[in-house]
Specification:
By secondary structure, the protein is α/β, with parallel strands linked by helices. The chain folds into 2 domains: about 5-125 and about 250-265, Nucleotidyltransferase, domain 5, CATH 3.30.420; about 135-245, Nucleotidyltransferase, domain 5 (2-Layer Sandwich). The chain has helices at about 45-65, 105-110, 120-130, 180, 185-190, 195-210, 250-265; strands at about 5-10, 15-25, 30, 35, 75-80, 85, 90, 115-120, 140-145, 150-155, 160, 215-220, 240. Strands 1, 2, 3, 4, 5 and 8 form a 6-stranded mixed β-sheet that branches. Bound molecules: beta-D-glucopyranose. Beta-D-glucopyranose binds near residues 81, 83, 94, 122 and 169.
Length: about 270
């Protein structure tokens, strides 16, 4: 199949930072999945330092494995858990508010030592699933929801991503911000069972279905690993499937976007 088209994807969440080198033709990871906890407080400089260290570690592993590409020629994509427009973070629900207004492309490019692409985490998951996973070739409207520290959402219409949907921030069922009641994190924060979480998630999806009528839902984020324990959701008519890449979708999507952006000379869309 020829040489892999390698890029590095780093997925920054409110709880963990995950990354790997990815063959962007197939979505396959070429190195181990690296993971470190998000530094306490999630401040921009601390996060950037961890991202820089992780990219160096992945480059070193890639070299050891004989994935021969000069360091600065490997495109790097980084997801962030907030709205990203023109490379600047606009919201920060689960990381330090200092991120708001931060030029994330400048900060992370400096930390990584080469120009990188920055994108919302759920949008990256949507891109990965559209390129290689559950949304590939799918007609109509797909809603990708990632349940982790927060709830991320990506809307894909006929294969095209509509960026920066923030459906985790709906006021719903008496909760001013629904992700604080229904993200995967509440299982630990409130000590509820997976069953109780699933009942909350089912009500949330049923509401989204009522107002947006997607053709299908794809569930990503940390909760997607256990999907056989809670799917199907009662009261939801559209098919609900786990992301093909489970919790790695953000890594794969970030790498894929970075490779494409580097090839095209970094256009301004999707935060590049
Ligand atoms: C943020 C989203 C993000 C999601 C998952 C939310 O709090 O507002 O932008 O996609 O968390 O990390």
């Amino acid at each position: 199949m020829g040489q892999p088209q390698t890029a590095i994807g780093i997925d920054v969440g409110g709880t963990g930072i995950k990354g790997a080198a990815v063959d962007t033709r197939t979505g396959e990871t070429l190195t181990d999945r690296h993971r470190v906890p998000t530094p306490a407080g999630g401040r921009p400089d601390d996060v950037a330092r961890e991202v820089g260290a992780m990219v160096s570690a992945i480059r070193a592993e890639a070299r050891r494995r004989g994935i021969a590409v000069p360091d600065d020629a490997v495109p790097v994509g980084v997801t962030l858990p907030g709205v990203v427009r023109d490379g600047v973070m606009r919201t920060a629900a689960n990381v330090d508010p200092d991120w708001i207004g931060t030029d994330a492309v400048a900060l992370l490019s400096e930390a990584v030592g080469s120009r990188c692409l920055v994108v919302n985490d759920a949008d990256a998951a949507g891109i990965a699933e559209t390129a290689f996973g559950e949304v590939r070739g799918m007609p109509g409207v797909t809603m990708v929801l990632t349940f982790g520290t927060g709830i991320g959402s990506a809307l894909v219409c006929e294969g095209v991503l509509v960026p920066n949907f923030e459906l985790g921030h709906l006021e719903l069922h008496g909760h001013p911000v629904i992700e604080r009641y229904t993200s995967a994190k509440v299982i630990e924060r409130e000590g509820i069972s997976l069953e109780e979480w699933a009942a909350r998630a089912a009500r949330y999806l049923a509401h989204l279905e009522k107002v947006m009528n997607p053709d299908r839902f794809v569930i990503g984020g940390s909760i997607s690993k256990a999907s056989d324990q809670y799917l199907p959701f009662p009261g939801v008519t559209a098919p609900v499937v786990p992301a093909s890449f489970r919790n790695n979708a953000g890594i794969v999507g970030a790498a894929r976007l970075a490779y494409e952006a580097a090839r095209c000379g970094y256009p301004a869309s999707t935060g590049a």
